[in-house]
Amino acid sequence: MLDPKLIKENPQIIREMLKSRNIEFDLDGLIESDKQRREFILKTDELRKKKNQVALEISQKKKEGQDATKIFEEMKEISKKLSGLESFQVEVEKKYMHLALTIPNLVHQSVPVGKDDSANKEIKMYGKIPEFNFKVNDHIEISEKLNLVDLERAAKVAGARFYFLKNDLVRLNQALIHYALEFLAQKNYSLVQPPYMINHSSMEGAIITDDFEQVIYKIEGEDLYMIGTSEHAMAAMHSGEIIEGKDLPLRYAGISPCFRREAGAHGRDQKGIFRVHQFDKIEQFVFTRPEDSWKEHERMLAIAEEFYQNLEIPYKVMLLSSGDLGKISAKTYDIEAWMAGQNAFREIVSCSNCLDFQSRRLKIRYREKTNEETKYLYTLNSTLIATSRVLVSIMENFQNKDGHFSIPSVLQKYMGQNTI
RNA sequence: GCGGGGAUCGCCUAGCCUGGUAGGGCGUAGGAUUGCUAAUCCUAUGUCCGCAAGGACACGGGGGUUCAAAUCCCCCUCCCCGCGCCA
């Protein structure tokens, strides 16, 4: 959600944002309903004022033992008028909230303007792309041959884009998780294992309405939604709270499975475990003061980079363009890891500063001193690992001529072996 | 699932029975007093509308009764205690 003051005082900034994001949005409708909303507040406030005055009068008369029945009529009329006005106000407020909750976030000035991912900017490339003197296999071929993944039976049991992870790949998945958690714990992150289902108001605070359709699974007959990432639960964790400045920044390392509908992804990455409905993820989530947020954003990216350097996986850092940017994010870096089987860099980390967009929806504020005005804090999130994609990258980049693959050295101690 | 108790401003709490302007404490900030500190006293300290003056809202959420609801009635959520069931 954007600052309502911006809608009223500086809609030009919002118009520019929509243009740079290449998004159609009924901004005039939002401005108009915001105006109407204010008018109704003025009107109902006026009437309530009168009501309070009359109520006071009655109470005084009663105290003095006088007859007040005559004023009751006046009061009745005011109440009737008020409840009529209030029902209109509810309608106007509904329309306003719908639009206010649908509009995307502002775009930071450092974000390259462009209509889609072709305008993304490469910031950095790290590592040497591995070369092979044999025919390179993709992760599907490797995992099938070594009996590490069963896609057919997963399709039978659950459907497309599911998988049974098997044997040493289960252990490698756990090793990754283990290492990633220790890595973030050492960086002073608090470890968090959140609820895997959250209610509607929490989810609405963390995501934009479209995502309910596109990514989120709903539990039938309950006010519960499967999280698409621990970010959703962690964002809502402090909803309605006022955080003390001395406790900032709050840095959390969330671990959870992630559930995604992948609606609209038909045909893309159809096979294997690269794009699936369920995977494990370790996520960085940070609440900061606005003025610290950009420094924190870079820090989170640096932490993710360090992690892939330790894994010895070559990667590129991309700065997403305005047209490719997620709607809740003001600036996003992606890390794309090399996947030898696809002969390409593919997205593995997404690191975003969401400004006060989520905290406004969730009413998460802070203040330095208890008598100070409260301010909305900023939220940032970044993947550390989405395990299924890291597994793909490891299998493909570390593959050997004999069809087996090596385990990155930092993970070997968790596995007790150096190849699979 | 059953029975009982609860949810009031950042935190703690009064008010609920008996409906009539939501009060106090802590914390924090400013001021007064004091040689300094402590203590004491005064003021400020939620959200929204408004340029302001000012006003409205806010007692877990929703409905109802009433001229009027924190207060009475109904439904829901969550927390605590006990019982039951359970990995």
Which helices and strands appear, and what pairs or packs with what?
Layout: H1 4-9, H2 11-21, H3 27-63, H4 69-102, E1 121-126, H5 139-145, E2 149-150, H6 151-157, E3 164-165, H7 168-186, E4 190-192, E5 197-198, H8 200-206, H9 209-214, E6 218-219, E7 224-226, H10 230-237, E8 242-244, E9 250-259, E10 278-288, H11 293-311, E11 315-319, E12 331-339, E13 344-353, H12 357-362, E14 365-367, E15 375-376, E16 378-386, H13 387-397, H14 409-415
Parallel strand pairs: 4-9, 8-14
Antiparallel strand pairs: 1-11, 2-3, 5-7, 6-7, 9-10, 10-16, 11-12, 12-13, 13-16, 14-15
The structure holds one RNA strand of 87 nucleotides.
Question: Can you characterise this structure?
Answer:
The chain has 420 residues and is α+β, with helices and mostly antiparallel strands. The protein has 2 domains: 4-102, Helix Hairpins; 117-415, Bira Bifunctional Protein, Domain 2 (BirA Bifunctional Protein, domain 2, 2-Layer Sandwich). It contains 14 helices and 16 strands. The chain has an 8-stranded mixed beta sheet with strand order 1-11-12-13-16-10-9-4. A 3-stranded antiparallel beta sheet has the order 5-7-6. Helix 3 packs antiparallel against helix 4 (69-102), helix 7 (168-186) packs across helix 14 (409-415) and helix 8 (200-206) crosses helix 10. It binds one RNA strand of 87 nucleotides through helix 3 and helix 4.
